[in-house]
């Protein structure tokens, strides 16, 4: 079996969260979605499970942090610098927030951070390994 990752995120409004992730380029897998959760697919090996707070509490009794806090930043690769920009623009236009941290442009690597409507932080990045500076 191919190794995969399913990132589980608690959300306050499932339809809004689904629209947001759809706008960023994720697609819904209805096979793993219902009235309390949605599987949003980024690639063959990466999916995001959006869970209502009630559904989240089925898996853990730990408290859901407020949207103004950060516990993790999820980095996701994009095919170009322009794709990174488009993802941030889509976040801003669909209830999220673009550039929650300073933009980083190292030439060979470019990233911008965005937050979804529930405050989950994503680092959209592009990297050209062939242009990476040689180690000294």
From TrEMBL:
Annotated InterPro entries: Glyas_Bleomycin-R_OHBP_Dase, Glyoxy/Ble-like_N, VOC_core
Ranges where the VOC domain occurs: 3-127
Superkingdom of origin: Bacteria
PROSITE patterns in alphabetical order: VOC
The protein, known as: VOC domain-containing protein
């Amino acid at each position: 079996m191919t190794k995969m990752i399913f990132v589980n995120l608690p959300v306050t409004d499932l339809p809004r969260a689904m629209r947001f992730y759809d706008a960023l380029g994720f697609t819904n897998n209805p096979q793993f979605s219902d009235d309390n959760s949605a599987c949003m697919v980024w690639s063959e090996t990466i999916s995001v499970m959006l869970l209502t707070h009630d559904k989240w509490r089925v898996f853990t009794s730990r408290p859901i942090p407020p949207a103004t806090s950060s516990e993790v930043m999820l980095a996701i690769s994009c095919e170009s610098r322009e794709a990174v920009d488009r993802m941030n623009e889509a976040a801003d236009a669909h209830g999220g927030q673009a550039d929650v941290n300073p933009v980083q442009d190292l030439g060979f690597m470019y990233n911008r951070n965005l937050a979804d409507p529930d405050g989950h932080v994503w680092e959209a990045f592009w990297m050209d390994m062939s242009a990476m500076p040689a180690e000294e």
